[in-house]
Write the structure tokens for this entry.
Amino acid sequence: MHHRESGSADGFESLMSSSNVFSGAPKTHSGPTSGASLGRPSEPPFDRLTFEQRRIYEAAEQAARRIEDVRSRGDLQVQLKSDSSPVTSADLAAHEEFAKLKWDHLISEEALTRPAAEECLKTQRENFWLIDPLDGTRDLIRGELSFAIVAGELRRRDDGQYSPEFGLIWHPPTDEVWIGWVQTQELWSRRNGVWSQQSRLALPAQWRVLGSRGMAIERLQALSTHLGLGENPPVERLGSAIKFARLAMGDAEVYPRFGPTSEWDTAAGQALLEATGGGLWDLSTQKRLTYFKSDWENRGGFLALRSAERASEIVAEASRIKSERDRAREEKR
């Protein structure tokens, strides 16, 4: 997950090898999902996929293979984009698989050009796709495994705005996959080659917290205490949109994010969470996250919750804390 200005990224510069920061062959591990409660093993839910959802699934499958091929060869190449954020040969290989679709309504993190958000709204299309072919690039460069392919489908509402309807998150190192539909309230996952439908889980007495790697555990615990989630709750830091999948699967209850993110980083995760009764709330509006903002950015921070049960009070408190923090920063300038 990284950011750049909306527009062209054709100013690649400072090509450099990543051999010093990447060990080569893929590592083996038990996968990012720990202790999730699954339903009974089932047949793959492919009959539920629309034509476009199936094509996106197939593109993600090929993208995962391309990413793992780059990793297995040990020749990951890193470039710096015009905004100094990194992109790798694995990012670009994965992007190629989605670019093959040649859909005007597919908006990718790695596209050299993308339409303005306001122009997309004017088309009044029924749906758009927001894609990050490899979310967690910096983790990949460091040799970490918490990166993912992320694809979210936005569907037009009666008021002309768009909200997530379908989400897919794919973890290439383990081939774990999570897909969810908001309208039918279904979340499916594939682990060790077995598909299962997730059952909605009750909230535990002690909430568990997920956070980004850039936020210290002590800060996450202090924030969680202020949010009324208990003293020193269990905290885990993790990269990429896998955090949303972990929340939706019931491995944690809350993920606070005060910094900016891009819309293609959140659309799929929001769909997974809303498919299981949770969601993403914009801390600047205290409403559910919306899309097609002018710069494709979520600048107000957000709170991701596995359940909407206590959303109003927790989101309001998180919004207050963020506002106080932002004011304190302004005063120091």
